[in-house]
Design brief:
The complex is a heterotrimer. By secondary structure, chain A is of the alpha/beta class. In chain A, about 40% of the residues lie in helices and about 20% in strands. In chain A, helix 1 packs antiparallel against helix 3, helix 7 packs across helix 10 and helix 14 packs parallel to helix 15. Chain B is of the alpha+beta class. Chain B folds into three domains: about 35 residues, no CATH class; about 200 residues, Alpha-Beta Complex (v583 fold); about 220 residues, Enterococcus faecalis V583 fold, CATH 3.90.1710.10. In chain B, strands 6-8-7-3-9 form a five-stranded mixed beta sheet. In chain B, strands 12-11-10-14 form a four-stranded antiparallel beta sheet. Chain C folds into two domains: about 100 residues, OB fold (Dihydrolipoamide Acetyltransferase, E2P), CATH 2.40.50; about 170 residues, no CATH class. In chain C, strands 1-9-8-7-3-4-5-6-2-10 form a ten-stranded mixed beta sheet, covered by helices on one side. In chain C, strands 11-12 form a two-stranded antiparallel sheet. In chain C, helix 4 runs parallel beside helix 9. Chains in contact: A-B, A-C, B-C. Strand 4 of chain A pairs parallel with strand 1 of chain B.
Chain lengths: ~525, ~475, ~280
């Protein structure tokens, strides 16, 4: 058994590139462990713990460490070298390679018309990049998370003084002028503007608006902490004002978990002052608490979209009730009746954190308590996130699942494996999940899933169990993955596909209620 | 954001490349950065640096410092003995100046020790090398950086009281700078040689040569150096490693002046022969001119402009305009270059000399576009030389219109290094340099390209940030 | 992807705001100057021989002919960089640390004023547009309250006469150069205010270029030439230098320089007296 390593001074690669190379090295036959990381103190410590050696290196150095047979290590290092070496830019006619742009300042010197910085570097460095962008007069979308709240406040205060916006930190989704930023869906342009503190929440609303035939003017993000007492909703207020001033926006939708009380007051007051109708969905808050002239409260994401669309058409704020049609009732009833006595529980396996959250709310409203690794108020915390107990609705995109691994929206394999496990569990009645499409998401989100589901179901059937699969697809037919194709694939695998996350959770809760004898 | 809505989005993507690809695929405008953690990968310093970008106090200070640098008009006004030109070397003081940041005798590299020992013999403070070395080690002879006294010297950069120094005066602000005489190539004091023939040459330089050239300089009546240097840049010099054209231009003027002085023809002939035989004769004059220009920019509070870059064969040292006399040092980076036959990297001394004052002023490596020959030492092409000059624009406050480069369409050479931009972009100032043998007295063994170490700029910015923290920023 | 050319500005005018991020377009292109309209203000790229302007950006170039800049080309300014979106590739002007030009107004009118005025009159009168002297005279009378309302009189002057900057406008710039100078004291300040108010509605009657020039002048923002002129009249130049300076200014443009001189002359006679003045705090 060998341990080999190589260090590349002053060679920087982003986390996705590093993970890709790591995975390729690990896949080399004969390699036991491989790690490709930037030599930050934390990473160096991890390498030591993993038994991959002790290193003294600088944070701007890249480290490749690999253990396995001698030959395998040799091959792995050679492969790493090949993958990491920068391609020499083509010269031709004696011209030197174009100057690489290494800072925002350099990019601005080359092109002063730059007007948005999309920042997704590691959290340690993200705030500084954002501050520099603001100082150069550029609006910021800060995708990075793990940014200290003091830095977030400093950034937003500075931005406010200069009439600039910081979307984030931890802002995964935005659409400005039809341009997708981060994880976003391809939706038609239209009259509805969104300001959201949740990425997938924003995606759900934009996708639903598109499905209802309307379109999106701009979807702005605020990051998950914006509406805390400490930050005070600075970005949401700025976004609201920006959409207010935008002639193409006719209706505004605000998406968030419930803000801190003083912040909610400020936001709703601003919403009331707006000349345009505002629909606010504060997931977990009672819609009745959202009141004001021209301000409407929605309970669920899909409903917010419904209300916005009907307002845009010039009507009242109206949302389709989430209820079971007769046909749906029959179908769900049949399925429930076909289950064995042991099958009593729902297992929600989500890639979108907000979908996990909303699903818990829907179940709670139907008196179904569920364990979770990210529990809503009143739900118990799952002791061991990798093992479900009773009703369990989990967020596979949470930090503990994504350390050193891609997010399930990008690479669903870990999530698919979990779905397989839940189907195999005799206590599972319903497996509930989301499939998120769009820019940034996996190009083929159902490929691995079909196989896993097929095998697991075969096993369950052999044991005499029928497990209900309920899903919703957050996407449009314009997305690369094409929602129609994904829905068809899911249906062919035996899944029931609802039209929204809330509806899918409603169906799931109905089955659980039937199973517990409470009736449909 | 309000300004953004309604305008075409033009994104700069900092981080995951996939995001840029998606924006492009959706038909949006995007520029992807080849980003790496700035400020030497120190997150705390990176945050501090971010707040210095666009800081009004720093911007205003830099504008002031840069303007003083641009407005400087160095003139060659005299050739004097060091003891008469530099007060600290006068009045019988036993003091010797050396190149680079401060360093104790015990830590000095071979060439510098050899040169100091030779200078002690030259001054007559000791009769043999052993005694000379003991004197230096004991502290009986004070050893200080040339820069501390407004002077500069190439390689070992040794200036002792009885040596002649060029006196260059900045006509705009009145400040003066000094440099020693260039002895030529081969066995010379600046590479650490201190044998009797070296000392003999020094005595001749300090005697007959000094008298003749001083007369000539005075007869030239304040020779304007900037136009001469600018002309040399158009003739293939970059005024650090290539000085032949400038030396030729100076020779023309000296020859005329010497003849006008009516000196003894033997004296004049010997002096001119010496100058004619040394293609680097102008280097020291150029260095003094650059020192006077940089010194004009020194001392502006809050300015992040670099006014000194220098090496002592162990460490690289810099100073900023806004942090006064404080040195910021780090081990010198290695030189990427070629060695003359018979020598290799094992034989090399670390980067040595005050000649990086050229790059501090936009010459040398920054003006590489004017003199591509050096890139052959690193396997490059003339296009690479031009690209090197262009790349320096990313870390300077502007381009000096007095020094234009034909290869850049006669644009000015990048000048006025801003430490903030170095730390932010990761682009290090590039220096064309000769490589000395690590043993005293052997001489130059190669040439190539090196860079200033990032740690110097990181430390300098941290210190500058301290001065800014004592005052609140006006919005 | 066409190449971007970066060029460092040699000098910028004192009124050019630092740290402005905005959008505009090229208004007009001449061989020695390019005018940029940026959110209601006019900035000018100047070739190296061109006289300084308060919103000027001096480039180390002889002329703009080879630059292929066209009217309507988009302008973006950010963090001290000014980008021009030309068809053949972007031009970026780096103004970050460029030294500033600022006029240093004289603080006294030295003895011999009358003689200098006569000298200027001699140099300029023959070169000015024939009606310029009359326009200057009429404007001054209205300004001093000796005739009808200022607006009415100025209506007949703004935009009148030939030239890129009509002769009437040049005359008014000349007047403003004097009244806005600290040398003209309180009375001058009041006159400047009056002119500014009167011109507000009238600038639309002339070319966009000249309108901007008038608006800037009414705010006391004037280029090198008018400043030098007032300075020359205030004294301090040796006789031959003075003669040279006046002739040079008077022969600028077709009649432009001389028309400015007409305005300066009329205003100088009324507003300038020998003696020292305290510069405005």
């Amino acid at each position: 058994m060998s341990l080999r390593s190589r260090s590349y001074p002053n060679l920087y690669k982003d986390s996705v590139s590093l993970m890709t190379v790591s995975a390729k090295l690990t896949a080399t036959p004969g390699v036991e462990q491989a790690s490709v990381v930037m030599a930050t103190p934390a990473n160096v410590e991890n390498l030591a713990h993993a038994g991959l050696g002790e290193y003294e290196a600088r944070a701007n150095d890249l480290l490749v460490a690999v253990s396995g047979s001698d030959d395998a290590c040799e091959e792995a290092l050679r492969l790493a070298d090949e993958l990491l070496s920068a391609k020499a830019a083509a010269g031709g006619n004696g011209e030197a390679a174009a100057q690489p742009l290494t800072s925002i300042q350099m990019a601005v010197a080359r092109d002063p018309s730059l007007n948005l910085a999309l920042i997704s570097v590691p959290g340690d460095y993200a705030a500084a990049e954002a501050m520099k962008a603001l100082r150069l007069g550029i609006d910021v979308m800060l995708f990075s998370d793990n940014v200290p709240v003091e830095s977030e406040l400093a950034l937003k205060l500075y931005a406010r003084e200069r009439d600039l916006m910081v979307m984030g930190p931890d802002c995964g989704t935005a659409i400005v002028g039809g341009v997708p930023l981060g994880f976003a869906n391809a939706v038609r342009r239209g009259a509805i503007g969104v300001v959201g503190a949740s990425g997938t929440g924003t995606q759900e609303v934009t996708v639903r608006v598109h499905q209802l035939g309307e379109g999106i003017s701009h979807a702005l993000g605020t990051g998950g902490h914006d509406l805390s007492a400490k930050i005070g909703g600075i970005s949401m207020l700025h976004g609201l004002a920006a959409l207010d001033a935008d002639p193409t926006t006719k209706v505004i939708v605000l998406v968030s978990k419930p803000p801190a009380p003083e912040v909610a007051k400020r936001v709703l007051a601003a919403a009331e002052r707006s000349a345009k109708p505002v629909v606010a969905v504060f997931l977990g808050a009672d819609p009745a608490s959202i009141k004001g002239e021209g301000v409407y409260g929605a309970r669920y994401l899909a409903q917010a979209a419904d209300m916005a669309v009907s307002l845009a058409k010039g009507g009242e704020a109206r949302a389709a009730p989430i209820a079971l049609s007769n046909e749906a009732q029959r179908t769900l009833g049949d399925i429930a009746r076909g289950m064995t006595a042991s099958q009593r529980y729902v297992r929600g396996v989500f890639s979108g954190g907000t979908f996990c959250y909303e699903a818990q709310l829907v179940h709670a409203a139907a008196s179904v308590r569920a364990f979770s690794n990210t529990p809503t108020d009143g739900n118990p915390r799952l002791k061991n996130s990798v093992k479900s107990q009773e009703n369990a609705i989990i967020d596979m995109g949470d930090d503990e699942f994504t350390r050193g691994r891609p997010h399930p929206m990008i690479d669903p394999s870990q999530r698919n494996a979990r779905i397989g496990e839940e189907i195999a569990d005799p206590e599972t009645a319903v497996v509930l999940f989301d499939v998120v499409l769009g820019y940034g998401a996996s190009a083929d989100p159902t490929a691995g899933l079909i196989g896993v589901v097929g095998a697991a179901r075969a096993g369950a059937n052999a044991a005499g169990r029928q497990v209900a699969l309920v899903a919703h697809v957050c996407g449009t037919e314009l997305d690369l993955q094409d929602r129609n194709n994904v829905v068809a694939a899911l249906k062919s695998a035996g899944a029931l596909v609802a039209s929204s996350n809330a509806e899918a959770a409603f169906w799931s809760a109905a089955i659980i209620a039937a199973r517990s004898g409470a009736g449909p | 954001m309000k300004a953004l809505i309604g305008r075409d989005l033009n994104v700069v993507n900092v981080g995951l490349e996939g995001f840029a690809a998606n924006i492009g695929a959706a038909g949006g405008q995007v520029t992807h950065l080849a980003w790496a953690p700035p400020a030497d990968a120190d997150p705390a310093l990176g945050w501090t640096l971010a707040q210095m970008i666009g800081d009004r106090r720093v911007e205003d200070a830099n504008r002031t410092a840069y303007e003083r640098y641009l407005a400087a008009q160095p003139r060659l006004v005299d050739l004097m003995l060091a003891r008469d030109a530099i007060p600290a070397l006068g009045k019988g003081e036993r003091r010797i100046l050396h190149s680079g940041p401060p360093i104790a005798w015990g830590g000095m590299c071979g060439p510098q020790k050899g040169a100091i020992a030779g200078a002690i013999l030259y001054e007559g403070w000791a009769r043999d090398l052993e005694t000379a070395e003991r004197l230096a080690a004991s502290g009986a002879v004070a050893l200080e950086p040339c820069h501390t006294r407004g002077a500069v010297g190439p390689m070992a950069g040794i200036i002792s009281p009885s040596m002649p120094v060029w006196v260059v005066e900045n006509a705009t602000a009145g400040n003066r700078a000094f440099s020693n005489l260039n002895e030529g190539l081969g066995k010379v004091l600046r590479f650490g040689a201190n044998s009797p023939d070296v000392l003999e040459r020094l005595r001749w330089l300090g005697g007959e040569f000094f008298t003749a050239i001083r007369a000539a300089v005075r007869a030239m009546k304040e020779l304007d150096l900037k136009p001469l240097m600018a002309q040399a840049l158009h003739m293939g010099d970059e005024l650090h490693n290539r000085n032949a054209a400038a030396s030729g231009l100076l020779f023309k003027r000296l020859a005329q002046a010497l003849i006008d002085c009516g000196l003894d023809s033997g004296v004049a002939r010997r002096a001119l022969a010496f100058v004619a035989g040394n293609d680097h004769f102008f280097l020291n004059v150029s260095m003094a001119a650059c020192k006077s220009m940089s010194d004009a920019a020194q001392g502006v509070p809050f300015s992040s402009m670099v006014t000194v870059m220098t090496r002592n064969g162990v460490n690289f040292g810099i100073k900023l305009s806004g942090t006064g006399e404080q040195w910021f040092e780090a081990p010198a980076n290695s030189v990427n270059g070629l060695y003359f036959p018979g020598y290799s990297v094992e034989d090399a001394a670390a980067d040595l000399g005050d000649s990086a004052i050229a790059e501090t002023n936009g010459l040398g490596g920054f003006a590489m576009a004017a003199s591509p020959a050096i890139v052959q030492f690193v396997g490059g092409t003339p296009a690479d030389a031009t690209a090197n000059s262009r790349r320096m624009l990313a870390i300077t406050l502007g381009a000096n219109p007095a020094f234009t480069l034909p290869a850049l369409n006669f644009a000015g050479t990048p000048a006025g290094i801003d430490a903030r931009l170095v730390a932010d972009s990761g682009v290090l100032p590039i220096i064309n340099t000769g490589i000395a043998h690590k043993k005293a007295g052997v001489g130059q063994i190669g040439a190539g390209i090196t860079t200033a170490p990032m740690a110097c700029f990181a430390d300098a910015l941290a210190a500058l940030a301290q001065t800014l923290a004592t005052q609140t920023e006006r919005p | 992807m066409s190449a971007t050319t970066i060029i460092a500005a040699e000098r910028v005018g004192y009124a050019l705001p630092a740290g402005v991020h905005s959008v505009g377009a090229v208004h007009s292109v001449f061989s020695c100057a390019v005018n940029l309209e940026i959110e209601g203000e006019m900035w000018t790229l100047l070739a190296s021989d061109c006289a300084e302007q308060p919103f000027g950006i001096r480039l180390p170039v002889r002329s703009f002919e080879a630059f292929a800049i066209r009217e309507g080309d988009g302008i973006h300014t950010r963090a001290g960089f000014v980008g021009v979106e030309r068809a053949g590739g972007r031009l970026v002007v780096d103004c970050r640390a460029a030294p500033r030009w600022a006029p240093s107004p004289p603080d006294a009118v030295l003895p011999g004023f009358a003689a200098r005025v006569a000298l200027l009159s001699q140099a300029a009168s023959a070169r000015a547009w024939p009606s310029s002297r009359l326009m200057a005279h009429d404007a001054m009378r209205a300004l001093l309250g000796e005739s009808g309302a200022l607006d009415g009189v100025l209506t007949g002057i703004v935009g009148r006469g030939p030239g890129l900057t009509p002769a009437g406008d040049d005359v008014l710039v000349g007047i403003l150069a004097v009244v806005a100078s600290p040398l003209a004291g309180e009375a001058g300040a009041r006159a400047t205010q009056a002119m500014r108010r009167a011109l507000e509605g009238l600038v639309l009657r002339t070319t966009a270029l000249s309108g901007h020039m008038l608006r800037q002048a009414a705010r006391g923002l004037l280029g090198r030439m008018p400043h030098d002129l007032v300075g020359a009249l205030a004294g301090g130049l040796a006789a031959d230098e003075l003669d040279c300076a006046l002739r040079r200014i008077a022969s600028t443009g077709a009649t432009s320089g001389a028309d400015i001189c007409m305005g300066v002359l009329e205003a100088a006679r009324a507003f300038l007296r020998s003696g020292a003045y305290k510069a405005a705090a």
